[in-house]
């Protein structure tokens, strides 16, 4: 199992988690674009992509430990019906207790992960966004409802096809332009999806619409 030494071992049972931020917004990318959701962004990351838009999450020590009760109580004060657990890399944390409490309260639970650590928790939707420099585990890919691959150059489409071999038949296949190269990457993806219509295009609409 991959780990991050910056994540506190004092709450290895998952009853408290390092939270970088927690907020109500709109899902901006992937198969569930446009849905209102509460986002729980956990701190700590073992992947650390060069194009990451949340590098402040990488070091868990910079973010406080919060109890599951405090996290869920905050969500309960909002109109949210969907909760997205993201990061950082959320699977560095034991997610069973958080998911159990959310499930008890009737929320739909979504996970966004690189797939580099074993699954924990109970989810309605698992989005795996794999990275070439830190490949995902096959057992996580097998559980994916959505495969969302960031594309910056043509070799990335070849890698996406290789990863695709490990997902199930019903998995939604998406290619998303790397934001820093979005103009050239978008043109590349458009032509690729036209030639391979089993794939779909994911755009980071929250950035275009300036949604937090």
Short description:
The protein is of the alpha/beta class and 212 residues long. It has helices at 68-76, 96-104, 138-141, 154-164, 182-195, 205-208; strands at residues 16-26, 36-42, 65-67, 82-86, 108-113, 125-128, 146-151, 172-177, 199-201. It is globular and about 50 Å long.
Describe this structure in words.
- With 212 residues, the protein is of the alpha/beta class.
- It has one domain: Aldolase class I (TIM Barrel, Alpha-Beta Barrel), CATH 3.20.20.70.
- It is built from six helices and nine strands; from the N terminus they run E-E-E-H-E-H-E-E-H-E-H-E-H-E-H.
- Strands 3-1-2-4-5-6-7-8-9 form a nine-stranded mixed beta sheet.
- It is globular and about 50 Å long.
- The relative contact order is 0.16.
- The model has no long low-confidence stretch (mean pLDDT 91).
Task: Please outline the helices and strands.
Elements: E1 16-26, E2 36-42, E3 65-67, H1 68-76, E4 82-86, H2 96-104, E5 108-113, E6 125-128, H3 138-141, E7 146-151, H4 154-164, E8 172-177, H5 182-195, E9 199-201, H6 205-208
Parallel strand pairs: 2-4, 4-5, 5-6, 6-7, 7-8, 8-9
Antiparallel strand pairs: 1-2, 1-3
Average pLDDT across residues? 91
Q: In which order are the strands of the major sheet placed? A: 3-1-2-4-5-6-7-8-9
Q: Can you tell me the overall shape?
A: globular
The percent range for strand residues is 15-25%
What is the terminal-to-terminal distance? 32 Å
Write the CATH fold name.
Answer: TIM Barrel
